Protein backbone atom coordinates (compact mmCIF):
# COMPACT_ATOMS: atom_id res chain seq x y z
CA UNK A 1 0.00 0.00 0.00
CA UNK A 2 1.09 3.61 -0.34
CA UNK A 3 4.29 4.46 -2.19
CA UNK A 4 4.84 7.37 -4.57
CA UNK A 5 1.97 9.78 -5.17
CA UNK A 6 0.10 8.31 -8.13
CA UNK A 7 -0.48 11.54 -10.04
CA UNK A 8 3.17 12.60 -9.89
CA UNK A 9 4.36 9.22 -11.12
CA UNK A 10 1.68 9.03 -13.82
CA UNK A 11 2.62 12.45 -15.17
CA UNK A 12 6.32 11.58 -15.13
CA UNK A 13 5.69 8.32 -16.99
CA UNK A 14 3.73 10.13 -19.70
CA UNK A 15 5.67 13.40 -20.03
CA UNK A 16 6.90 12.58 -23.53
CA UNK A 17 3.35 11.78 -24.63
CA UNK A 18 2.13 15.06 -23.13
CA UNK A 19 4.83 16.96 -25.03
CA UNK A 20 3.69 15.27 -28.25
CA UNK A 21 0.14 16.46 -27.52
CA UNK A 22 1.25 19.99 -26.60
CA UNK A 23 3.15 20.47 -29.85
CA UNK A 24 0.87 18.57 -32.25
CA UNK A 25 -0.43 20.53 -35.26
CA UNK A 26 -3.98 21.01 -33.93
CA UNK A 27 -2.81 22.68 -30.72
CA UNK A 28 0.01 24.61 -32.37
CA UNK A 29 -2.39 26.11 -34.91
CA UNK A 30 -5.07 26.72 -32.28
CA UNK A 31 -2.56 28.74 -30.27
CA UNK A 32 -1.47 30.67 -33.37
CA UNK A 33 -5.07 31.33 -34.36
CA UNK A 34 -4.43 29.75 -37.77
CA UNK A 35 -6.45 26.55 -37.25
CA UNK A 36 -8.93 26.25 -40.10
CA UNK A 37 -12.59 26.77 -39.33
CA UNK A 38 -13.34 23.36 -40.88
CA UNK A 39 -10.98 21.64 -38.43
CA UNK A 40 -12.36 23.55 -35.47
CA UNK A 41 -15.92 22.80 -36.59
CA UNK A 42 -15.09 19.09 -36.76
CA UNK A 43 -13.54 19.31 -33.32
CA UNK A 44 -16.46 21.02 -31.56
CA UNK A 45 -19.01 18.65 -33.10
CA UNK A 46 -17.02 15.66 -31.90
CA UNK A 47 -16.31 17.22 -28.52
CA UNK A 48 -20.05 17.66 -27.98
CA UNK A 49 -20.53 13.93 -28.68
CA UNK A 50 -17.61 13.09 -26.41
CA UNK A 51 -18.88 15.11 -23.45
CA UNK A 52 -22.15 13.17 -23.35
CA UNK A 53 -20.22 9.91 -22.99
CA UNK A 54 -17.72 11.48 -20.61
CA UNK A 55 -20.61 12.70 -18.45
CA UNK A 56 -22.03 9.17 -18.28
CA UNK A 57 -18.62 7.79 -17.25
CA UNK A 58 -18.35 10.45 -14.53
CA UNK A 59 -21.81 9.48 -13.28
CA UNK A 60 -20.66 5.87 -13.03
CA UNK A 61 -17.58 7.02 -11.10
CA UNK A 62 -19.93 8.83 -8.71
CA UNK A 63 -21.98 5.66 -8.28
CA UNK A 64 -18.82 3.73 -7.35
CA UNK A 65 -17.44 6.44 -5.03
CA UNK A 66 -16.63 5.12 -1.55
CA UNK A 67 -17.60 8.28 0.35
CA UNK A 68 -20.10 11.15 0.06
CA UNK A 69 -17.51 13.80 -0.84
CA UNK A 70 -16.24 11.80 -3.82
CA UNK A 71 -19.81 11.02 -4.85
CA UNK A 72 -20.68 14.73 -4.92
CA UNK A 73 -17.44 15.62 -6.74
CA UNK A 74 -18.10 13.27 -9.65
CA UNK A 75 -21.87 13.81 -9.75
CA UNK A 76 -21.23 17.53 -10.12
CA UNK A 77 -18.52 16.90 -12.71
CA UNK A 78 -21.01 14.81 -14.71
CA UNK A 79 -23.52 17.66 -14.59
CA UNK A 80 -20.92 20.21 -15.66
CA UNK A 81 -19.73 18.05 -18.55
CA UNK A 82 -23.23 18.05 -19.99
CA UNK A 83 -24.69 21.41 -18.88
CA UNK A 84 -21.84 23.90 -18.45
CA UNK A 85 -19.67 22.82 -21.34
CA UNK A 86 -22.69 22.35 -23.59
CA UNK A 87 -23.42 26.07 -23.18
CA UNK A 88 -19.90 26.78 -24.42
CA UNK A 89 -20.44 24.49 -27.41
CA UNK A 90 -23.76 26.11 -28.21
CA UNK A 91 -22.08 29.50 -28.48
CA UNK A 92 -19.62 28.12 -31.00
CA UNK A 93 -22.38 26.15 -32.73
CA UNK A 94 -24.26 29.40 -33.33
CA UNK A 95 -21.05 31.08 -34.52
CA UNK A 96 -20.40 28.24 -36.96
CA UNK A 97 -24.01 27.92 -38.07
CA UNK A 98 -24.40 24.43 -36.62
CA UNK A 99 -28.00 23.57 -35.74
CA UNK A 100 -29.44 20.59 -33.83
CA UNK A 101 -30.12 18.80 -37.09
CA UNK A 102 -26.48 19.05 -38.16
CA UNK A 103 -25.29 17.71 -34.82
CA UNK A 104 -27.79 14.86 -34.88
CA UNK A 105 -26.75 13.96 -38.43
CA UNK A 106 -23.02 13.94 -37.58
CA UNK A 107 -21.99 10.58 -36.09
CA UNK A 108 -19.14 10.25 -33.61
CA UNK A 109 -15.83 9.97 -35.43
CA UNK A 110 -13.69 6.83 -35.05
CA UNK A 111 -11.50 8.54 -32.43
CA UNK A 112 -14.49 9.88 -30.50
CA UNK A 113 -16.31 6.56 -30.64
CA UNK A 114 -13.21 4.71 -29.45
CA UNK A 115 -12.54 7.11 -26.60
CA UNK A 116 -16.12 7.16 -25.32
CA UNK A 117 -16.45 3.40 -25.67
CA UNK A 118 -13.23 2.89 -23.74
CA UNK A 119 -14.24 5.21 -20.89
CA UNK A 120 -17.66 3.61 -20.56
CA UNK A 121 -16.26 0.08 -20.59
CA UNK A 122 -13.76 1.01 -17.88
CA UNK A 123 -16.43 2.83 -15.87
CA UNK A 124 -18.73 -0.21 -15.96
CA UNK A 125 -16.20 -3.00 -15.55
CA UNK A 126 -13.26 -1.69 -13.53
CA UNK A 127 -12.95 -0.80 -9.85
CA UNK A 128 -13.24 2.81 -8.73
CA UNK A 129 -9.48 3.65 -8.67
CA UNK A 130 -9.01 2.49 -12.27
CA UNK A 131 -12.08 4.45 -13.38
CA UNK A 132 -10.59 7.65 -11.93
CA UNK A 133 -7.22 7.01 -13.58
CA UNK A 134 -8.95 6.65 -16.96
CA UNK A 135 -10.94 9.86 -16.48
CA UNK A 136 -8.07 11.98 -15.14
CA UNK A 137 -6.18 12.70 -18.42
CA UNK A 138 -9.18 14.47 -19.93
CA UNK A 139 -9.16 16.91 -17.02
CA UNK A 140 -5.44 17.28 -16.48
CA UNK A 141 -4.14 17.35 -20.05
CA UNK A 142 -6.83 19.85 -21.07
CA UNK A 143 -5.72 22.14 -18.27
CA UNK A 144 -2.03 21.94 -19.11
CA UNK A 145 -2.60 22.35 -22.85
CA UNK A 146 -5.01 25.19 -22.14
CA UNK A 147 -2.46 26.98 -19.97
CA UNK A 148 0.25 26.51 -22.57
CA UNK A 149 -1.92 27.80 -25.41
CA UNK A 150 -3.20 30.70 -23.29
CA UNK A 151 0.36 31.80 -22.57
CA UNK A 152 1.20 32.11 -26.27
CA UNK A 153 -2.13 33.05 -27.84
CA UNK A 154 -2.69 36.60 -29.07
CA UNK A 155 -5.61 38.60 -27.65
CA UNK A 156 -7.29 38.63 -31.06
CA UNK A 157 -7.04 34.86 -31.51
CA UNK A 158 -10.40 33.80 -33.01
CA UNK A 159 -10.51 30.85 -30.60
CA UNK A 160 -9.87 32.98 -27.51
CA UNK A 161 -13.15 32.09 -25.76
CA UNK A 162 -12.34 28.40 -26.06
CA UNK A 163 -8.76 28.91 -24.88
CA UNK A 164 -9.79 31.02 -21.88
CA UNK A 165 -12.23 28.36 -20.63
CA UNK A 166 -9.59 25.68 -20.20
CA UNK A 167 -6.94 28.03 -18.83
CA UNK A 168 -9.33 29.52 -16.25
CA UNK A 169 -9.11 29.25 -12.48
CA UNK A 170 -12.48 27.50 -12.05
CA UNK A 171 -11.45 24.67 -14.35
CA UNK A 172 -8.03 24.44 -12.68
CA UNK A 173 -9.60 24.01 -9.24
CA UNK A 174 -11.87 21.27 -10.59
CA UNK A 175 -8.83 19.47 -12.00
CA UNK A 176 -7.03 19.72 -8.66
CA UNK A 177 -10.00 18.07 -6.95
CA UNK A 178 -10.01 15.16 -9.41
CA UNK A 179 -6.23 14.71 -9.02
CA UNK A 180 -6.64 14.63 -5.23
CA UNK A 181 -9.47 12.09 -5.44
CA UNK A 182 -7.40 9.88 -7.75
CA UNK A 183 -4.38 10.05 -5.43
CA UNK A 184 -6.59 9.20 -2.46
CA UNK A 185 -7.93 6.14 -4.28
CA UNK A 186 -4.41 5.05 -5.25
CA UNK A 187 -3.08 5.49 -1.71
CA UNK A 188 -5.16 2.56 -0.43
CA UNK A 189 -4.89 0.40 -3.55
CA UNK A 190 -2.64 -2.63 -3.91
CA UNK A 191 0.49 -2.33 -6.08
CA UNK A 192 -1.17 -4.47 -8.75
CA UNK A 193 -4.22 -2.21 -8.81
CA UNK A 194 -2.05 0.91 -8.97
CA UNK A 195 -0.33 -0.58 -12.00
CA UNK A 196 -3.74 -1.06 -13.64
CA UNK A 197 -4.40 2.61 -12.87
CA UNK A 198 -1.19 3.56 -14.68
CA UNK A 199 -2.19 1.54 -17.73
CA UNK A 200 -5.60 3.23 -17.76
CA UNK A 201 -4.05 6.69 -17.43
CA UNK A 202 -1.61 6.08 -20.28
CA UNK A 203 -4.24 4.63 -22.60
CA UNK A 204 -6.57 7.58 -22.02
CA UNK A 205 -3.67 9.96 -22.67
CA UNK A 206 -3.09 8.25 -26.02
CA UNK A 207 -6.77 8.67 -26.80
CA UNK A 208 -6.50 12.40 -26.04
CA UNK A 209 -3.87 12.59 -28.79
CA UNK A 210 -6.03 10.54 -31.14
CA UNK A 211 -9.00 12.82 -30.59
CA UNK A 212 -7.11 16.01 -31.51
CA UNK A 213 -5.31 14.28 -34.37
CA UNK A 214 -8.60 13.01 -35.78
CA UNK A 215 -10.05 16.52 -35.62
CA UNK A 216 -7.02 17.94 -37.44
CA UNK A 217 -7.42 15.37 -40.20
CA UNK A 218 -11.23 15.81 -40.15
CA UNK A 219 -11.30 12.04 -39.96
CA UNK A 220 -14.51 10.14 -40.60
CA UNK A 221 -15.36 6.50 -41.10
CA UNK A 222 -13.50 5.08 -44.12
CA UNK A 223 -16.38 2.75 -45.06
From TrEMBL:
One cellular component term from this protein's GO annotations in UniProt: cytosol
Domain Thiaminase-2/PQQC: 25-217
Organism, scientific name: Methylobacterium gregans
InterPro entries: Haem_Oase-like_multi-hlx, Thiaminase-2/PQQC, Thiamine_Salvage_TenA
CDD domains xrefs: TenA_C-like
Pfam families in UniProt: TENA_THI-4
Name of the protein described by the UniProt record: Aminopyrimidine aminohydrolase
